[in-house]
Amino acid sequence: MSDIIIAPFSNSAIRDWPAGHFAELITLLREQRAPTQRIRVIGTVNQRLGANEIVRTHPADVVFNECGRLSWGSVLLVIRNAACVIGNNSGIAHIAGYLGAPTVCIFGGSHSRTEWRPRGRNVVVLSRAIGCSPCQLDHGRISSYGKACLREIAPHEVRNAAVRVMARAAVMAETGDSGRVEA
């Protein structure tokens, strides 16, 4: 069974789904899937402490904080081979979509979803359009609504989308059409 990859950070906090939501998502994924399926949280070394907040309540032999521990080549390999990649509107989600990995992108209201969403046959984008979307807020600017566009996307919705995209990818793989880009 392939690993589930969680990429909870973008290069702009305005696009990051709440850490508590990611922690709850991991609980839901472990309940829905095999409880021993590995979940790997990836990011940079500077994101390691933030990832600790996400993984700390989960068993260390199943949920791994690999922020800052993987080379770029290793990141690409784990994405390519992932059962599913779940992340914010970030480079990781875009790369996963391009590589054909089953991908769930949690997309905030800072940018136009139709213009900036990740592309790919195995990509699901979850977003909430609220009155201020797209707000065009970026790096360090604060949302007047507490990032309601992200906060209101519930962990169970992301889990359900991940289960659906993994099931669809499994059917495609059985028919010999993985949707993945060959190296």
- Integer count of domains: 1
**Which regions are unreliable across 5 or more consecutive residues at pLDDT < 50?**
none
N- and C-termini, Cα separation = 21 Å
> Whole-number radius of gyration?
15 Å
* Sheet/helix structural class: alpha/beta
Could you describe the largest sheet, including whether it forms a barrel? 6 strands, parallel
CATH architect. name: 3-Layer(aba) Sandwich
Summarize the helix and strand pattern as letters: EHEHEHEHEHEHH
How confident overall, as mean pLDDT? 82
Number of strands: 6
Helix content: 25-40%
Overall spatial form:
globular
Output the CATH topology: Rossmann fold
Proportion of β residues? 5-15%
In DSSP terms (H or I, runs of 4 or more residues), the helix count works out at: 7
* Fourth CATH level, the homologous superfamily: Glycogen Phosphorylase B
Q: Within the largest sheet, what's the order of strands?
A: 3-2-1-4-5-6
Task: Identify the CATH class.
Answer: Alpha Beta
